[in-house]
Design goal:
By secondary structure, the chain is α/β, with parallel strands linked by helices. 37% of the residues lie in helices and 22% in strands. It contains 18 helices and 21 strands. It is elongated and about 80 Å long. The two termini are 23 Å apart.
């Protein structure tokens, strides 16, 4: 990924990152580059849609654009996960009346207004009287009256039109299905083969789901657990511990929870991830109206702004960029909202409402000291030398005011950090001495726009160099005019 190109280099002043989903509206090389220029820092490939050939072409385009602009770009492959769906209807669709009885059974015959096939035998064994079934993203709400091995009799609390193969959500119990299907395993192998930086794990219900995915990943890539089930919320600390980051998938959470429960839960999830120094992405329906319109609603603008004020590492666009009519405009608007929030004089006070106490380690103590120095003195940048990215995550957890330049010999680390708050990651050759570190830090800071003559920078690294987990050095340097002239040559 490393390049000598300086003409097309892109540097953000914004701390929060933007994750844009690619799809039919945005998977051309030209549009991907437009989205990058508009503000996208990372791209999501939704494995629920499209085929491997289309995703492979998107991978190739992203890597060429990455080389052109000398900017590490993360690619997140989002696995579909198991989908629970009803069968088909004789007429394609029926209307379930409010208050009527409706049965889901194991008979594959096309359904009618009284019954439909449910091709998931595991549900018949676990459902109990009083539990809910939510069909078609909660548009139809059924309450279980009686469940047996062959049928589930329900009362329609909210009726409506139901058509073939609509999805079913089961919010009141853990569904005994693995988080990864046979399709997910094939998609995971494809993602690893093509160098995906992040793997999004859908339908996480328990810590064991994350552990299984990690085993299948074989140590490759970073794992992002999507929090979209109430059962996952109940095990959130263990899930975060086993993951490299989490995604707050408000769409599915909003189906299985009462809508008023989602905003406070979002804040708790963001705070829980931040305490561990792991990236947290807020996703789903952020600028939903921009699928069809060139401007968002005021409520959507407030929604994005609130996620930024919460201190999220990244905010995500889904159908807005994948299938919408205004993909570039959606990224531009999200970039403008985030930038405006971060320029608010109360922004840093608000994101520090959440406490992120350091562990009793040298690395955590130095990261905290680094942030305190940056918030006390006029510091133009924080230079972090890291191999795995852990030091950068520790610094980002403190949410310092100064921008962070992360220098790493690992291309994979640089790319993964494209979803970390405040990190501008650059892949560069490793260093072997203290003097080499200082010289390289100054040179790269000047090259990437982190200060000028007279600027003060904080350097954070570990000695001996190249040893994982050895962060034990903090140093403040000042850039000179001579160095500035040398860097310009």
């Amino acid at each position: 990924m490393a390049s000598n190109n300086t003409q097309g280099r892109i540097k953000r002043t914004r701390k929060v990152k933007i994750l844009a989903t690619l799809g039919p509206a945005s998977n051309s090389p030209e549009m991907i580059e437009k989205l990058l220029r508009a503000g996208a820092d990372a791209f999501r490939l939704n494995m629920s849609h499209g085929d491997h050939a289309a995703h492979a072409a998107a991978f190739a385009s992203i890597r060429k654009i990455e080389e052109k602009h000398d900017r590490a770009i993360a690619v997140l492959c989002d696995l579909q996960g198991p989908k629970l769906r009803v069968g088909t209807f004789a007429d394609g669709e029926v209307t379930i009346r409010h208050g009527s009885h409706f049965t889901l059974d194991r008979n594959p015959t096309p359904g009618d207004a009284a019954r439909v096939y449910l091709p998931h035998p595991e549900l018949f064994r676990i459902l109990e009287k009083g539990q809910r079934l939510l069909v078609d993203d909660g548009r139809i709400r059924l309450r279980v009256l009686r469940a047996s091995d062959d049928e589930i009799l329900c009362s329609a609390e909210v009726g409506g039109v139901i058509s073939d193969r609509k999805g079913v959500n089961v919010p009141d119990t853990i569904v005994p299905v693995p988080a990864m299907t046979a399709k997910d395993r094939r998609d995971l192998a494809f993602a690893i083969e093509h160098g995906a930086d992040w793997i999004g794990l859908s339908f996480v219900q328990r810590p064991e789901d994350v552990a299984e995915a990690r085993r299948l990943m074989g140590g490759y890539g970073a794992l992002m657990a999507k929090i979209e089930k109430p059962s996952a919320v109940r095990h959130i600390d263990e899930i975060i511990e086993l993951s490299d980051g989490i995604m707050v998938a408000r769409g599915d959470l909003g189906v299985e929870l009462d809508p008023e429960q989602v905003p406070p839960l979002q804040k708790r999830l963001v705070e829980a991830a931040r305490k561990t120094g792991k990236p947290v992405v807020v996703a789903t329906q952020m600028l939903e109206s921009m699928i069809e319109r060139p401007t968002p609603t005021r409520a959507e603008v407030s929604d994005v702004a609130n996620a930024v004020y919460d201190g999220a590492d990244a905010v995500m666009l889904s159908a807005e960029t994948a299938a919408g009519d205004w993909p570039e405009e959606a990224v531009t608007i999200m970039d403008r909202i985030a930038s405006e929030v971060e320029s608010d004089e109360t922004y840093f006070k608000r994101i520090h409402i959440a406490e992120t106490p350091p562990d009793a380690t040298m690395a955590d103590a130095l990261a905290l000291s680094c942030a305190r120095i940056a918030d006390t003195l006029p510091i133009d940048g924080i230079i972090v030398f890291t191999g795995s990215g852990s030091t950068a995550r520790r610094v980002a957890r403190e949410r310092p005011k100064a921008p962070m330049l992360v220098l790493t010999p690992s291309t994979q680390t640089a790319r993964r950090l494209a979803l970390l708050w405040g990190a501008h990651a650059v892949q560069t050759k490793d260093i072997g001495s203290f003097d080499g570190m200082i010289a390289k830090g100054k040179r790269m800071a000047l090259r990437h726009g982190f200060g000028g003559a007279g600027s003060r920078l904080i350097t954070l690294a570990g000695v001996p160099f190249g040893t994982p987990g050895s962060t034990n050095l903090i140093h403040v340097v000042t850039l000179s005019g001579t160095e500035l002239k040398a860097a310009a040559k």
